Amino acid sequence: IGLPSTPHLEQNYPNPFNSRTTLRYSLPERGPVKLTLFDLQGQLVRQVAAEVKEAGSYEVTWDGTDEQGRPVASGIYLSRLEAGGVSQIRKMMFLK
Fold it and tell me: How far apart are CA 48 and CA 22, in angstroms?
């Protein structure tokens, strides 16, 4: 399977999850990437990627903790990929 024509954020797996989940994304060309996690109130929970990446497919694992390493509460969270002038959001459910 080839690279997408625009940056693409896949649905996390597993979803729902209880200890960790994998977020996968693909980039058609080299450029800056930001992958951030938010709660439903729009508050930043964790930034899991913020760097320049080559074209390709990548994955990041999230262990259900915030920026300070504290476990987050059960609930719905949003992952947002920003790359190539595109922003994509996916819902995730964290269950303890």
Answer: 11
> Please, which residues bridge with residue 81 across strands?
35, 88
Q: b or e along 16-53 (b: 16 or more beta carbons within 10 Å of the residue's beta carbon)?
A: ebeeebebebbbbeeeebebbbebeeeeebbeebeeeb
Number of Cβ atoms within 10 Å of the Cβ of 10: 16
Tell me the CA distances in angstroms from 52 to 7, 11, 60, 65, 84, one per residue in order.
13, 22, 15, 24, 11
Q: What is the mean pLDDT of the chain?
A: 95
pTM of the shown model: 0.93
